[in-house]
Amino acid sequence: MMRRLILAALALLLAAPALAQQPATVFAAASLTDAMRALGQEWASRGHPAPRLSFAASSALARQIEQGAGADLFLSADEPWMDYLQSRELIVNNSRISPIGNALVLVAPTTPTRAPVALGRGTDLLALAAGGRIATGDPAHVPVGRYAEAALRWMGQWEAIAPRLARADNVRSALLLVERGEAPLGIVYATDAAASRGVAVLGTFPAGSHAPITYPFAITRRAAGNAEALALHAFLAGPDAVPVFERFGFRLAR
């Protein structure tokens, strides 16, 4: 599939050089912020126009695309929100690919220092929170919150913890609540925790406690003929982007 995407991108670039100079607009999940800014700079260094980047919760971005927002690429933090757009015929189906993944971690403010925790079914998260709230994305629509809910259900603690959640509108907002000490614990992605100097990772949730965290990328239907968008998509899903994603802690999807 990747070879076909790259060949198609090259063909379009040769056939429509003027169109290729129009910057692509990328709607990307908030957890991709740092990696995509670095990749946007790398793309521009190769002689392309720097992409226009917009970051938010995958749910918010998907709904904006549904309402006609001018996105050329959609990079989601979970499969269901890409499914949402695909079911509405708003993406190019054969452009959908999930090249990277992530992990789910429990974090706390760096001060005071806390001991690591082996997260399992017997871990009492409410006791660890010491009466405070646990910050994560809103499970009703934010991918990280959905993964957190699945992990808490696996632990048998969802009913007890759900009323104590600080439900943020995206993973970076949840992280900020912990950095500021407004929540003693947070459930976020490993990559976001690694990007913060204000939180420490207490433990990683077992992979089997939630669905695999994968990031589907796709070209939107409105950009199906946009050579620059197709070329950028091939770059982001290809081997040249791998070192950057890995530098920011993302895993290659299996």
From TrEMBL:
Pfam families according to UniProt: SBP_bac_11
Alphabetized UniProt keyword annotations: Metal-binding, Signal
Q: Which residues form the signal peptide?
A: 1-20
**The keyword Signal is annotated on this UniProt entry:** yes
Highest taxon in the source lineage: Bacteria
InterPro entries linked: ModA, ModA/WtpA
Name the protein family: Belongs to the bacterial solute-binding protein ModA family.
Supply the name of the protein.
Molybdate ABC transporter substrate-binding protein
